[in-house]
Each structure stands twice: as structure tokens, then as C-alpha cells.
Design a protein that fits this description.
The structure holds two protein chains of two kinds.
Chain A: E1 2-4, H1 9-18, E2 22-25, H2 31-36, E3 44-47, E4 57-60, E5 63-67, H3 72-79, H4 84-91, H5 96-101, H6 104-110, H7 118-124, E6 127-132, E7 136-141, H8 142-145, E8 146-148, E9 151-152, E10 159-166, E11 172-177, E12 188-195, E13 200-206, H9 216-225, H10 236-249, H11 260-285
Parallel strand pairs in A: 1-3, 2-3
Antiparallel strand pairs in A: 4-5, 5-10, 6-7, 6-10, 8-9, 11-12, 12-13
Helix pairs in contact in A: 3-4, 9-10, 10-11
Chain B: H1 23-27, E1 43-49, E2 55-61, H2 63-66, E3 71-75, E4 100-101, E5 107-113, H3 116-123, E6 127-132, E7 156-164, E8 173-181, E9 193-198, E10 204-208, H4 213-224, E11 231-235, H5 251-261, E12 265-268, H6 271-277, E13 284-292, E14 298-308, H7 316-325, E15 335-343, H8 358-376, H9 380-387, H10 407-416, E16 445-458, E17 467-477, E18 480-486, H11 496-508, E19 512-515, H12 533-560, E20 568-570, E21 573-575, E22 581-584, H13 585-589, E23 594-601, E24 620-633, E25 638-649, H14 656-675, E26 681-682, E27 685-686, E28 707-710, H15 727-744, E29 750-751, H16 755-759
Parallel strand pairs in B: 1-12, 8-29, 10-11, 14-15, 18-19, 25-28
Antiparallel strand pairs in B: 1-5, 2-4, 2-6, 3-5, 7-15, 8-13, 9-10, 9-12, 13-14, 16-24, 17-18, 17-23, 20-21, 21-22, 24-25, 26-27
Helix pairs in contact in B: 4-5, 8-9, 8-15, 9-10, 11-12, 14-15
The chains are: A alpha+beta, B alpha+beta.
Protein name (chain B): Xanthine dehydrogenase D subunit
GO molecular function, one term (chain B): iron ion binding
Pfam families (chain B): Ald_Xan_dh_C, MoCoBD_1, MoCoBD_2
Chain lengths: ~290, ~750
């Protein structure tokens, strides 16, 4: 197995084009597990940790461009105020050691249905910036990025450059159920973003379908029912109905981590609670 | 007039918090574990394992594997020179599968190569032609007439029948339940590892992480067809054991490859292989019924316990013995009918794990005691106090409990500890069920409190010749008195090396005590299990030290012209009755070393009657109680253990810090089984052989613990010690389960309790 270590973004894209068999690696928190368990034997590893451009984030016109190599630990400490939903999710990733290594770009690359970063990115309507040496840069809405279980929309010669996320205009929540209180892969996860500026609701469901996905119907339902102008308290029945619609949007399976029925049930509870918390936050902010 | 100099008292004796000799090395990461073993000339061994729970091996073709460059040997069952069989109690397990494989993960072939990756790739090229056969994977079917046979002799490993008192007792209050316990893994942090080095005499030296060097040696000799003097074992650094290293793993395999290749062979499992490479805790299916008077006084018990032993016997028979003889808890029962069964299936083999049969039964008897308390309207502490055994009582095998049995006091102590404060209005997420998963801010959270009291035998039971051997030498080197302690007892992390030092310091009054590596050059110490080493090897070291002391003092008496009586050793000196220094050890010993070897036994135990299960089966009992306080998110089924407090009688705390450490660890392990730890096996296949999905409690799951240590000396044991390691593992889980039941109001008749059991979804 070759170990390829480009030191610039251009070089990384060139190497990527030459070696479609190379597996990109950033923090290695997914890749190394696969290698250690002998589930994967790529022809080469493409180490992106020396590509400085990937380690940076910037803000332009109210949108964060988060380099694919920024680790979760920095998302928490540097972007907690601007991207609260993503930061809450980052806080649930593995252990402190994992959060120092693991990256949002790597999470998108793995495209696991259980990836913790995915639900808040879906709820925020993020876009994934990918690039190739031959065709340059393109942006993919994150909802279209996940194409199947651990599959994404990347072409063989493409790498993930960054993810673009609008800074929060309203309250955001992220909730993750696991069978222990830390260092656990999600049994189910739910992210919610309220967008009061356009009276819209964003959602993201994790670990309860072949891919991370939005609950689009539930979003529209809640956005339509919320008292955006008066900011009256959220009726319990509305929160409940929203929860049921979120659960209905899931397509979970039974596996060693949990049952399909529990995943659906827990999503309904999480969505109900998250909507209540977020709406209460918005009312308090008013 | 001259003032006699008084010797400085030796420090680091029993009862003090002596420092572990291996402590700093372990904390700084410098301790050499078995996985760190290295030999410049070594090759690596790997194991090819069965993918099927049950199959016939039609043919094995190793041709292609042998062509891989770097491969030095490929071995199958045909290459086992001695008997192709091993086992702790019955040699029923092949070293390498010959005609059949009986569980997923059973070793089929071995490869040695110059790199572990090369060896793995070569192993993948071994062609095994399997005829897949129907597998028996439901233990409840094992004794059916039409069940597939795992072994020709039938699927029963042991049935323990226990009868006492009235044949058909009746009682005004009757409670009953069914209970299931899932398969727990020992999950020691250092996976199986060893290094076998071929020796010039045609034998082999094996360095390996294990729990009992001599029982390993016996089994290796059988498989290699070699006498014990040709198979020498030395303990390598052990990263935890908990019963999972009682059975052989890499031992014979590494020796076979070393003898074949003529090279040192290292074998080291990864985590996934480790899950297939050692026995687990038996899953249990239990039915219990208690009859009582209206005030809750127990009248009778009926219990049916079924343990899934998996494909090979391992220590299943002894686990059945414990589940039967101790399986009703530390309570007085006038009449008893218990039937405990261990059966073969095509599931992974199960055997020893901390708590050994008592853990499973405790979940059932403690849940039923709570049922009884509710039925008669008394609280859970009172029902246990009212029925708890006391010193002098007979237990359910008719054995008199002849040292402290402080059931009532242990309960009272945990009940009297302050309860944790209620959750504040705006709690920190980390204090809530789900923690930073941010699943609740207090919604749906209810608090519950649960109690448990249990007991466990210490040492090997039912007539086993349970002994240990210690060799102790005292000499003066470079002007300093040094005691050397040599045993074959395995230090697995529990702190026995420190205990040995403390005992030698106490008995010989010398500061410097060297515990040399455990090996088979000295006699057997028995197993590091059954909470027995401080008792038994401690007893052997004490006896050997006493023999050395007697010899030294006799020399001193002659040299000093004083009677032996009144002489003692302290502060590296011979002292008189008042502690006054009479001579330095150097003056007495000169260049001589005094060495004594002692084989030491505890009081004998006895087999139980085959018809009634009656008899003095055990040498000592150890009692503990727990009180768990939990917060449960009743809507999501998530649990936060808020407090897990305990009281335990340890007889005598040789090293109080180490005792508390054992109790912390044991409590966490029992809690793990109650809430999350399970090897999930479906149709004979292990579905979660990794720490990603086999969940162990983290620091956010284990609460701070209050530990009350009682010291009621057992007059029959050295220093009055009572085994410490296992009791907390037994009583913690049932207390946690009871607390969860109290919080959510659900019966919860299975552990680990999963979120969907609480939410009923």
C-alpha cells in the first residue's frame, strides 16, 4: 500500500486524479478502523493532513466556509457561536482524542448514515464544495450529497474541499441517542434549525435511514404552524405532531445497536423536545 | 548505663497503602505487557478460525498458503504431536479443529510468517472445505430429544440438583419470575499475547499472559506430548483477566509453531479476534419462585437455572456448581429445590468470569426479593435484613457459615449513606441521561433507588485440592537485607505483587522485598481467580516467611546466646521483646541465604451430595451490598447512574487502597452488565466483536462511589482476609437494575437493560 502525502491542494487534486484507488485520510478515525479490521485494503492512502488550505475556515457574507480538514475540537471552540448545531454534534463525537483528530470533511467522505456532523449540516442547508484537477470546483447541496449507505456524490477524481454553512439566524439543536453516555455511535440522531429570517425550519435525521436525510414534510408542517409573528408558546400537541412526522420520515432498520421501532420512537421524542427547546430559545431571544 | 537502640519499624506492611511496584510503569505507559514481547529472531503466528458455528471439515488445502513468500509454517490438526485436546475440567476442545468445528471462531489452522500481515494473507489462502451443519444455538432446546448433538455424549455438561427441607412446601405469599442474563465479555484491555521460544533441549519456553501457569503447562504438555520439564512458562505482563485467561488461547499454537519453525514465535490477537479467542460469561435463563409468610419471612425457594456453556466444557461444571449452591443469595430458606444446568450449544464457549455463576443468579434472586417486598408491603432493605443469613446459620447446602456474615449491617450501612441531591433546575448535560447527546433537559427523567446484597465463595470449592506454593529467601546483599519471594501466582492487575511484598515485610521485618517473575520453576500457586490469591498465595507466602524467620531467629539465638522466644525481626534487625536492636541481619546471616519453600492449603472443601446438593462445598463466603441511585429518561429509556455506593466485608484489608480499587472496578463491571455490556450472538454468530459496539461504561457512565470497607476477620484465614475481587461485581448490577425498575415502573426481566426495554418499543 502506497502512502501519498501531498503538501498543497493542487498537488492533492493531481494525485487524486492519478490514483483513483487511493483512499483519502484526514483524522483517520474511520479509515484506520476499517484498515485495522481488514475491511478495506486500498491501493494507497492519500494523506490530506499536510494540505494547509484544508485546515482553515473563513466567513464571507454570513456563510462559514469550513475547510474539510478542520477537526471537531476546533468546531466546538472556534465556531460554537456561529454554527451551534454543528458544534453540539461535534461535542458528541467520540472522545476528546477523537475530536482532536476527526474532521467534518472526513465524516462527509465516509458518508455513514450515523455520521454525527450530517444532521446539523442538513438542518442548516449546507453545501459541500468538491473539486477535481480536471473540472475545478462544484458545490453540492448536502441533502444531495449522500447517495447510499456509506456512499456520496464524489466522482473518483474529486476531493472534498470544504463545507459552506450559513451562520445560525435562529436557534439550533442537536440530539443524539446512544446506549451509553459518551463515546457512542448514534442509535438515532436529530438536528433542528429554526430560520426565523425566512420563517423556515430545517431538519436532519441520523442513523435511521440508509443515508442521513431531512424530514421535509415535517419541516414544512412545522414552519406553517409556528406563530412566527406572535411567538406564542409552542403547543404540546404541535410539538407532538411534528415529532410524529419526523419519525415517519425515517426508514430505520433493526441492528445490533437498536431496533427500528425504537429508532422511530426516539426520533419522535427527540424532535418534539428539540422543537420545544428551539422555539423557547427564540421566544426568549425576542 | 547504655540505652538500647530501637529498630525503625519496617514500613509497607500489611494494612498500609503500600505502593505497587508496577504502578508507575503502568501509569507512564512503560510497563511491558505480553503484547510488547519481542525477540530479534521471531516470526509471527496467526490463527485461521471457523466462520461457521457448526460444520464438518471435509478437507483443508494449505498448498497456496505455503507458497506465500515469508511463510515458514502452516499447521493443521494433523500437526499436533500429542493429544489434540485441551480443557480446564475436561479435555474436550481440539487444539486445532479436526473433523468438526463447533463454534464461530474455533481455531482451524495456524500460519507463521516473517510479518503478521504476511501471515494473515497466507491464512486467507488456506482452503477449508466445510459442510455446514445445523447448529444448536438456543440453550433452551439443548436437552430436547431432537436437538443436534454438540458432542457424542449429549448436550448436558452438568445438572446440579439441590434439595433441602420440606418436599412440597407451601406458603401464604408466593412470588415468581423469569429472568434472562445476556453474555458478558471480560473485555480486558490487553488482548491475548505470547511468545514461544524453542529451546536447545528440544523443549520450549513460553512467555504468556495468563491466570494459572501450571494448569496451562499441564494442558500444553498433553498437546505437545512433552514432559513438564521441557515446557517452561513465564508470566508475561497481563493487561487484565477477569476469568477470560483461565482457558488456553495462543499457548499451544505458539509452541507448535515455534517447535516446527525452530524460531521464536509471537502471537498477539487484535480486539476482534480476542472476542473469539476467550470464553465469555454464561448467558442464563432462570425461573425463580419464593414462598414466604405474610411478614415476608422466607419459607421456600424453587429455582431453575440454565446456563449456555457454548461448544466446549471449559469451567461450565464449576459455574453450575456456584449458580446452584449459591444461587439463592445470602438468605435463610427452610426449604429449597434448585436445579441448575449447564449445556452445550454451538454458541461461543462460556466459562470463567468474575463472579462465576453468582452474577447471573443474583439478578434473579434480587429482583424476586424486591417483588416479595412489594407483595408483603415492606421496603427492599427490610425484606433483606429480615431474611439475611448470620454467622452460624446454615446455607442452602447445609453448610454452617462459620465466620462473619454481616448481611444486615452491610445493608444498613449503604442505606444510611447520604442520598445524592436532586437534579438542579438547570442541570449540566453531563449529569443527565444521554449526557452531551442533549436528549433531555430534565423532561421524562425519574429517579429510582435500588438495593442488593449478595455473597460469593472464595477459593476453589467442592473438594478441589486448592493450594499455593511460595519460595522465600532472605539474604544480605551489599549490606542490605533483601527478601525474595517466588511464586507462580499471576499478577493480573489486582495487586498481588504488592500484597506479597507487604506480607514479607510484615513477617520478616525487612524493607526490601523483591517479587521475582512468576514461572513454573516453582510449584503451582493455583489460579488467579475465585478471589483467592490474597488468601491462598498470601497464606503460602506468609507460611514460607514464617519458616524463614524461624530459621533466622534460631541462628540469631545461637549467635546471641539467648532463647529464641522473645526474638523478632524488624527494621532489618534482630530485635528483642522491647524492640531493642540485638543484631543486624548481616551479623546473623553473613553471606548465607535462608530459603524455604512451602506448599499451603486452606481448609478442605467437599463435594456435594449428587441427589441433594448438600455438603460443605465452600471454604469461605464474602458478602457485599450495593445501593444504586439512577435517573432514567423514561421516554427514551436512557439511564444515568447517579450513585453506586457499597459496603463490603473484606476480613482484613491488606492494602486498603487496592481493596477500594477492586471494589470500584468490580462495581463498574457489574453495572456494565446491567446496562450495556453484551456479546450479541445471533444464530451462533457474534455480531459486535469490537469496542465500537460492545459497550463498556465510560467515565460519564460510572458515578463517584462511596465504599464502606468492613473488616471482620475470618479466624480461619491468614490475617483474617476475605476475598475481595468478585463480590462487588455480583451485587452492583442487581442494585442498578432495581433502581431502573423503581424509576420507570417496568418489570425489566432481562439484562443488559436496553433503551427499548424501558420504552417498550
Amino acid at each position: 500500500m502506497d502512502f501519498l502525502q501531498p503538501s498543497s491542494w493542487d498537488e492533492a487534486l493531481a494525485v487524486r486524479a492519478e490514483r483513483p484507488d487511493a483512499l483519502p485520510i484526514a483524522g483517520g478515525t474511520d479509515v484506520m478502523v476499517e484498515l485495522n479490521f481488514d475491511r478495506r485494503r486500498p491501493g494507497a492512502l492519500l494523506d490530506l493532513t499536510r494540505v494547509g488550505e484544508l485546515q482553515e475556515w473563513s466567513i464571507d457574507d454570513g456563510t462559514v466556509r469550513l475547510g474539510a480538514g478542520v477537526p471537531y475540537g476546533r468546531v466546538i471552540t472556534e465556531l460554537g457561536d456561529r454554527l451551534p448545531g454543528l458544534a453540539m454534534a461535534a461535542r458528541t463525537v467520540g472522545s476528546p482524542q477523537i475530536r482532536v483528530r476527526g474532521t467534518v470533511g472526513g465524516n462527509l467522505g465516509s458518508a455513514s448514515p450515523a455520521g454525527d456532523a450530517h444532521p446539523p449540516l442538513l438542518a442548516a442547508g449546507a453545501e459541500v464544495e468538491v473539486a477535481s484537477a480536471a473540472r475545478g470546483t462544484r458545490r453540492i447541496p448536502v441533502a444531495e450529497f449522500f447517495t447510499g449507505v456509506k456512499r456520496n456524490a464524489l466522482e473518483p477524481d474529486e476531493l472534498i474541499a470544504a463545507v459552506h454553512v450559513r451562520t445560525a439566524r435562529g436557534p439550533q439543536q442537536f440530539c443524539k441517542v446512544g446506549t451509553r453516555n459518551a463515546m457512542v455511535i448514534a442509535v438515532s440522531a436529530f438536528a433542528l434549525a429554526l430560520h426565523p429570517d425566512r420563517q423556515a425550519v430545517g431538519t436532519g435525521i441520523g442513523s435511521a435511514a440508509p443515508t442521513p436525510r431531512r424530514a421535509a414534510e415535517a419541516e414544512e408542517f412545522l414552519a406553517g404552524e409556528l406563530d412566527w409573528a406572535g411567538r406564542a408558546a409552542l403547543p404540546e400537541s404541535l410539538a407532538q405532531a411534528f415529532g410524529e412526522r419526523v419519525a415517519a420520515a425515517a426508514a430505520p432498520i433493526d441492528d445490533v445497536r437498536g431496533t427500528a421501532a425504537y429508532r422511530r420512537h426516539s426520533l419522535a421524542v427527540l424532535a418534539r423536545r428539540a422543537a420545544t427547546w428551539a422555539w423557547d430559545d427564540l421566544r426568549r431571544a425576542a | 548505663m547504655t540505652t538500647a537502640q530501637t529498630a525503625a519499624r519496617t514500613t509497607g506492611r500489611i494494612g498500609e497503602n503500600a505502593q505497587r511496584p508496577d504502578g508507575t510503569l503502568k501509569v507512564t505507559g512503560e510497563f511491558a505487557y505480553a503484547s510488547d514481547l519481542w525477540h530479534d529472531d521471531m516470526v509471527w503466528g496467526v490463527t485461521l478460525r471457523s466462520p461457521h458455528p457448526h460444520a464438518r471439515i471435509r478437507r483443508i488445502d494449505v498448498t497456496e498458503a505455503l507458497t506465500v513468500p515469508g511463510v515458514s509454517a502452516v499447521l493443521t490438526a494433523d500437526d499436533v504431536p500429542g493429544e489434540n485436546a485441551f480443557g480446564l475440567e475436561h479435555a474436550d476442545q481440539p487444539v486445532l479443529a479436526a473433523e468438526f468445528v463447533r463454534y464461530e471462531g474455533e481455531p482451524v489452522a495456524l500460519v507463521a510468517a516473517d510479518h503478521p500481515e504476511t501471515a494473515r494473507r497466507a491464512a486467507a489462502r488456506i482452503r477449508v472445505d466445510y459442510e455446514v451443519l445445523p447448529a444448536l444455538t438456543d440453550a433452551r432446546r439443548a436437552l430436547d430429544d431432537d436437538a443436534p448433538l454438540v458432542h457424542p455424549g449429549g448436550n448436558l455438561v452438568r445438572h446440579l440438583r439441590l434439595r433441602r427441607g420440606a418436599e412440597r412446601p407451601t406458603a401464604p405469599v408466593v412470588v415468581s419470575l423469569d429472568f434472562e442474563v445476556g453474555m458478558q465479555d471480560q473485555a480486558f484491555l490487553g488482548p491475548e499475547s505470547g511468545l514461544a521460544v524453542p529451546a536447545e533441549d528440544g523443549g520450549v519456553d513460553l512467555y504468556v499472559a495468563t491466570q494459572w501457569l501450571h494448569v496451562d503447562q499441564r494442558q500444553i504438555c498433553l498437546a505437545l506430548g512433552m514432559p513438564p520439564e521441557k515446557v517452561r512458562l513465564t508470566l508475561a505482563g497481563v493487561g487484565g483477566a477477569f476469568g477470560g485467561r483461565e482457558d488456553l488461547s495462543v499457548h499451544v499454537h505458539a509452541c507448535l509453531l515455534a517447535l516446527r519453525t525452530g524460531r521464536p514465535v509471537k502471537m498477539s490477537y487484535g480486539r476482534e479476534e480476542s472476542f473469539h479467542g476467550h470464553v465469555h460469561r454464561h448467558p442464563a435463563t432462570m425461573t425463580y419462585e419464593f414462598g414466604a409468610e405474610c411478614d415476608g419471612t422466607l419459607v421456600y425457594a424453587r429455582a431453575h437455572v440454565l446456563l449456555d456453556g457454548g461448544a466446549y466444557a471449559s469451567s461450565t461444571a464449576a459455574v453450575v456448581g456456584n449458580a446452584g449452591t449459591l444461587g439463592l443469595g445470602p438468605y435463610r430458606f427452610p426449604s429449597v429445590a434448585v436445579d441448575a444446568y449447564g449445556v452445550f450449544t454451538h454458541n461461543p464457549p462460556c466459562g470463567a468470569m468474575r463472579g462465576f455463576g453468582c452474577v447471573q443468579a443474583a439478578f434473579a434472586h434480587e429482583a424476586l426479593m424486591d417483588e416479595l417486598a412489594a407483595a408483603v408491603g415492606v421496603d427492599p432493605v427490610e425484606i433483606r435484613r429480615r431474611n439475611g443469613v448470620q454467622e452460624g446459620d446454615r446455607n442452602i447446602t447445609g453448610q454452617v457459615i462459620d465466620s462473619a456474615a454481616p448481611v444486615a449491617e452491610l445493608l444498613q450501612r449503604v442505606a444510611d449513606l447520604p442520598l445524592p441531591p436532586a437534579l438542579p433546575e438547570q442541570p449540566d448535560l453531563r449529569d443527565l441521561p444521554g449526557a452531551v447527546g442533549n436528549t433531555t433537559h430534565g423532561e421524562g427523567v425519574r429517579r429510582g433507588v435500588g438495593y442488593s446484597v449478595t455473597y460469593k465463595n472464595v477459593g476453589f470449592s467442592e473438594g478441589f485440592d486448592d493450594y499455593s506454593t511460595a519460595r522465600v529467601r532472605l539474604q544480605v546483599t551489599g549490606g542490605e537485607a533483601v527478601a525474595t519471594v517466588h511464586t507462580a501466582a499471576a499478577e493480573v492487575g489486582q495487586g498481588l505483587v504488592t500484597v506479597q511484598q507487604q506480607i514479607a515485610r510484615t513477617e520478616l521485618g525487612v524493607e526490601q522485598v523483591v517479587v521475582v517473575p512468576a514461572d513454573t520453576a516453582v510449584g503451582s500457586a493455583g489460579s488467579t481467580s475465585a478471589s483467592r490469591q490474597t488468601y491462598v498465595t498470601g497464606g503460602a507466602v506468609k507460611a514460607a516467611c514464617e519458616a524463614v524467620r524461624t530459621a533466622v531467629l534460631q541462628r540469631a539465638a545461637i549467635a546471641l546466646g539467648r532463647p529464641v522466644a522473645g526474638l523478632a525481626l524488624d527494621g532489618d534487625k534482630v530485635v528483642g521483646a522491647g524492640g531493642e536492636v540485638l543484631a543486624g541481619l548481616a551479623d546473623v546471616l553473613g553471606d548465607d541465604a535462608v530459603e524455604e519453600t512451602v506448599e499451603w492449603r486452606h481448609r478442605p472443601t467437599h463435594a456435594v451430595d449428587p441427589e441433594t446438593g448438600q455438603g460443605d462445598a465452600h471454604v469461605q463466603f464474602a458478602f457485599s451490598a450495593h445501593r444504586a441511585v439512577v435517573d432514567v429518561d423514561t421516554e427514551l429509556g436512557l439511564v444515568k447512574v447517579v450513585a453506586l455506593d457499597t459496603a463490603q466485608d473484606v476480613g482484613k484489608a491488606i492494602n486498603p487502597d487496592a481493596v477500594v480499587g477492586q471494589i470500584h472496578g468490580g462495581s463498574a463491571q457489574g453495572m456494565g452488565l446491567a446496562l450495556m455490556e453484551e456479546v450479541v450472538v445471533t444464530d451462533g454468530h457474534v455480531r459486535n466483536p469490537s469496542f465500537t459496539d460492545y459497550l463498556l461504561p465510560t467515565v460519564l457512565d460510572v458515578p463517584p462511589m462511596r465504599v464502606e470497607v468492613l473488616e471482620y476477620a475470618d479466624p480461619h484465614a491468614p490475617y483474617g482476609v476475605r476475598g475481595v475481587g468478585e463480590p462487588p461485581t455480583i451485587s452492583s448490577g442487581p442494585a442498578v437494575a432495581a433502581a431502573v425498575r423503581a424509576a420507570c415502573g417496568k418489570p425489566l426481566r432481562r439484562v443488559p437493560i436496553r433503551p427499548e426495554h424501558i420504552t417498550c418499543t
